[in-house]
Design brief:
The protein is of the alpha+beta class. It has a single domain (11-102), classed as Orthogonal Bundle (Arc Repressor Mutant, subunit A), CATH 1.10.10.10. The protein is 59% helix and 13% strand.
């Protein structure tokens, strides 16, 4: 039987988990992440064409994902190009994994 070392969930990790969980808590944001994961980058307008919501709403969801650090944007007026922030994406993956392993 393999013994899994218990991971200590610290207040700092709890803050990170909550930040990422909040960003992932809306179906449209999950869809945005799915779409971005299929390509290297995407312009806001491209996402607006693919999603059944207004441009301003897409922008709000992008803002939440960017604030959580899950995506990053590059502004080339008048367009903004977004892609997944791989470092933070991997960090979120690791802390969720550690959290779920520690909760029994």
């Amino acid at each position: 039987m393999k013994v899994i070392a218990e991971q200590q969930v610290t207040p700092l990790n709890q803050e990170e988990i909550a930040k990422f969980a909040k960003a992932l808590s809306h179906p449209i944001r999950l869809e945005i992440l799915r779409l971005l994961s299929t390509q290297s980058c995407c312009f806001t307008g491209d996402l607006v064409e693919l999603l059944p919501i207004a441009q301003s709403t897409v922008s709000q969801h992008l803002k939440e994902l960017k604030s959580a650090g899950l995506i990053q944007g590059e502004i080339n007026p008048p367009k903004t190009k977004y892609c997944i922030n791989r470092d933070n994406w991997n960090r979120a993956n690791q802390i969720f994994h550690d959290f779920f392993q520690s909760v029994k």
